[in-house]
Amino acid sequence: MSKLKIAIQKSGRLNKDSLQILKDCGISIDNGRDQLKASANNFPLEIFYLRNGDIPQYLKDGVVDAAIIGENLLIEKGNGIQFIEKLGFSKCKVSLAIPKGENYNGISYFQNKKIATSYPNTVQSFLDKNNIQAQLHIINGSVEIAPNIGLADGICDIVSSGSTLFKNNLKEVAVLLTSEAVLVVSPQLGKEQQDILNKLQFRIQSVLKGRQSRYVLLNAPNEKLETIIKILPGMRSPTVLPLAEKGWSSVHSVLNKNEFWEIIDELKANGAEGILVCPIEKMVV
C-alpha cells in the first residue's frame, strides 16, 4: 500500500507542534529515540525528521511528498513549492534589529550597512523593494551575536517573544514578514499520495476548526429566545430544547473563540443564564 511521506523539523517547537497536530488527527506514530524516519500505525503515513533548512530541497526532489514547515522558510527557500493549509501554530516574525543604543530613522538606516542573517533571499528582496544597498553576511545560527562582535551593524532573524534580542542588547526596528506553520506539497506529488494527502488535510481542517471554536450551552427564558438566537451565530442555527421548567429553553451553539467574550456579555445582557462553555476536539462541517 502506498504511503504519504511527510517531513517535519527534526527538533524544536515546530517539531512538537507538528507531532501534536498529527496526534490530534488520530494518527499514532511509532517513533523510537533518535529515529530519522517513523511510520504511523493506523494511517498510510511515513514521517521524516529532517533539518529545517533541508526540507525545501527534499520536497523539490520528490524525496518527500509533503511537509510541515514555517512560512518564513517557504518564502526563503521554497520557490516552486505550494502551501495548501495554514496551521495556526509556531507563529513568529522575520525582523530587522539593531543595537539598542543606535538611533533608527527608518529603513534608510541600513544604507551601506552590514546585515547578518540566515534569510539572505528574504532580506535582499526587502532591500531591493526599498532601494537600499547593504552588504549581507550569511550566518546559520547565533545571528544575534554579530553586532556585538563587530561583524555586522544589524541583523535579520526570526523573532518570537523578543527575549533573544533583549538578551543581546538589540531592538526590533522593521518587520519583513509574519509567519506560521504551513502544510506544503512537493511539485512531484503522485496521484495515490494526493488521495492520502486529501484525507490528512480533511482531518487537519477538522482539528483546526475545533481549536478555533467553543461549544456553548445556556438556559434562556422563552420570551427572549428570538433575541438570543439572533446573537448566536451557530453552524447553521442554534439547537433549542425545552427545559422541564415551563417557560424556559436550553440553547446549544458554537462560537468562534476570538469572539467569545463579546458574545457572552451580550447573551447575559439579554437574559441568558447557566452558560456552560466546552472545548471542541474536532469539528466536521
Structural summary, described in words:
The protein contains eight helices and 16 strands. It has a seven-stranded mixed β-sheet with strand order 2-3-4-1-5-12-6. It is flat and about 75 Å long.
Please list the strands of the largest sheet in the order they lie side by side: 2-3-4-1-5-12-6
Overall, the morphology is flat
Distance between the termini: 29 Å
Question: What percent strand?
Answer: 25-35%
Structure class: alpha+beta
Evaluate the radius of gyration.
Answer: 24 Å
- Please give the number of β-strands: 16
The helix content is: 25-40%
Strand/helix succession: EHEEEHEHEEEHEEHEEHEHEEHE
Number of helices: 8
> How would a textbook summarize the main sheet?
7 strands, mixed
Given as residue ranges, the uncertain stretches (5+ residues, pLDDT < 50) are none
Average pLDDT for all residues: 91
Features of the shown structure:
five-stranded mixed β-sheet; single chain; 8 helices; alpha+beta; 285 residues; seven-stranded mixed β-sheet; 28% helix
